[in-house]
Amino acid sequence: MNRSIEVNGSEIYYYDSQTKGDTVVAVHGLTGNHLQLSHYRNLLEGSYRFISVDLKGRGNSAPATEKTGIEQHTQDILALLDALQIRNPILIGYSMGAFIMANIASRRHDVKALVLLDGAAECTPDHQNKIVEPSLGRISKIYPTADAYVEEVKNIYDNLGVKWSQELEEMARYEIKQIDAGWTHRSDEDKIRQDFKSFYTYKPEEVFTSIECPILLIHSQGRIGQMPPLFLNESYVSTMEAAKNIMKVDSETNHYTLVGEKQPEINTAIQTFFEKNL
Asked: Please, what's the b/e burial string for 98-113 (b: 16 or more CB within 10 A of its CB; e: otherwise)?
């Protein structure tokens, strides 16, 4: 069931499976929305209550604030957990969502487990910018039809080495809106870029020393089309050194196939991690 609730002065939109079991709360990446983690929702919602969020500035949530960034999104998710009276959550974050969920686990000591899908790493602008920047220009463009936007997104995913699917098309159509001149992305490009810049001030060594729960880190080491992985082995050195109880799985997926395609090996890693730690 899709719902919205006011947190920190404006609305957050989210999916709630309303199924029985421990509650999993999942947060997407930089330009994603709650549909981005649909493969993991399908994996888990039969055994867990699964909540997947549109961060502010995405999907049907309120616009991003002037202070948008990893810290502001952290405050919003903390407020959402309080508003929904969720205790002992299991947290899953992908890419930027991993940075946010690691923050939350460092401040909420009732978190039962944390799954990081290729994120919460140390970043350097020279590396990540070259990979992420080319896909951001679509956000401010106006398209004559929804199909024209979907076709551009399909081409982007093709270049990223991701097989196109019905799930990706559904996500692409969800992230746009119709205006008088045509169709455009629901997000504000400047605010997305502001969120992206906050990656570079993130200090894993300051966050992970305060996390008490077990952590599963999936590192996607596959090339992204013709480009290298978004996060390199050295990107996770501080994360691994500071974490007290962390299991790292090196995956042949790339950063985008990790969520854009069904990943049986990652599914098995998550299920095994849950069986051992919950």
From this structure: bbbbbbbbbebeebbb
The per-residue pLDDT for 172 is 98
Residue 133 near residue 30 (C-beta atoms within 8 A): no
Helix, strand, or coil (residue 26) = strand
Q: Residue 161 in contact with residue 214, Cβ under 8 Å?
A: no
pLDDT of residue 199: 98
- Residue 132: C-alpha distances to residues 103, 261, 265 (Å): 22, 19, 26
Contact in structure between 111 and 77 (CB atoms under 8 Å): no
Instruction: Give Cα separations from 193 to 65, 120, 190 (angstroms).
Output: 13, 18, 5
Distances (CA, A) of 122 to 82, 118, 135, 193, 203: 29, 11, 21, 18, 7
Give the pTM: 0.98
Helix 96-107 vs helix 70-83: crossing angle, to nearest 10: 60
Tokens coding 104? 């939350």
Closest CA to 209 of 232, 237, 238, 231: 238
Q: How confident is the model at residue 86 (pLDDT cuts 50, 70, 90)?
A: very high
Helix axes 166-174, 146-159, angle to 10 degrees: 130
Residue-wise pLDDT tens digits, 182-241: 999 999 999 999 999 999 999 999 999 999 999 999 999 999 999 999 999 999 999 999
Predicted local distance difference test score (pLDDT) of residue 53: 98
Under a CB-based contact definition with an 8 Å cutoff, are residues 77 and 11 in contact?
A: no
